[in-house]
Description:
Distance between the termini: 48 Å
Radius of gyration: 21 Å
Largest sheet: 5 strands, mixed
CATH topology of the largest domain: D-Maltodextrin-Binding Protein, domain 2
Strand content: 15-25%
Number of strands: 13
Number of helices: 12
CATH architecture of the largest domain: 3-Layer(aba) Sandwich
Helix content: 40-55%
Bound molecules: (2R,3R)-2,3,4-trihydroxybutanoic acid
Strand order of the largest sheet: 4-3-5-12-6
Number of domains: 2
Shape: globular
Amino acid sequence: MKRWTSWAGMILSIFLAVPAAGVMTSPGVAATTIKLGVVTQPGSAQNIVAEKFKALVEERTGGNVIVKIFHSASLGNETEILQQIQMGTVEMGVITDGPFDTFDPIVRVVNYPFLFKDSAQADAVLDGPPGKEILTSLEGSGFKGLCFSENGFRNLTNSKRPVKAAGDVAGLKIRVMASALHKAIWQALGANPTPMPWPIYTELEQGVIDGQENPLWVMEVYRFYEIQKYMTLTRHVYSSHIDVASLVWWNTLKPDTQELLRTAMRDAALFQRADNRLRDEGRLKMLKEKGMQVEENPDIQSFRDKTAGLKDLDLYREPQVYALLVKMLAATR
Ligand code: EAX
């Protein structure tokens, strides 16, 4: 790592770092700057991956590769970030799985309701051959899928009433991600699902929507305890992030750079998954202290019953997608 000997040097470096073409960090070696997009804010699961990746890459390349993180939707919502990655104007992203489903329906198998019984099982499947098949499939849409980090198991919150069983969801206006599957899940549960990009605090606060569903860290980091009275630990969907690069850009990189980036992202993802899981217990406690009324033992069977037919919907009609779903359902039994 370059060490600054004077303020003048540091100030000079700021100017030198501006040109998009990159800076010379050591004689004869042109630095590469990677733009990495995340929709969420610092402290979020996606940002923890991004920051760890940045630190690892910059450390391992001695500063020859710089990662610039664009967080808090500064590049647009997740669909828009993915479009920029497809085109190669943004090199990388840590993107929630949901919005991928408009680009490649295979991602719907990850979000199948009640698929994974716990995080260990999700890791085994996503780090194994099924995960590899999903990452490889994304190349068809212009993404180099590197690995999976995690958002976590999603839970329902709302401002209207306690939800103990699926029947209590009837008529609630629930915000969902830009995903046909997520919309279908909440339709099957009898809610009124409203697709909306992230962030959604204002819409919840103003009552445009009654509720939303996300992992516990979201209720903490986005202060949903201020505007959502009721939470139900439904854990209905395991939500990953897919850590991707632009395929057109990736193909211009030397194999050793690809390997370095792949390994750094993998290390960042493993770090973040462990970190996320470690903090869940504390988050639940904190959310209760903040006044959320939490239903910890809902009637999960009632949710399972209402969503059991989803695998037979058109969502999964593509033969490869259906075959993978069947395989994953069998592997997680
Ligand atoms: O990661 O859009 C969503 O619900 C995501 O889970 C959100 O970006 C938080």
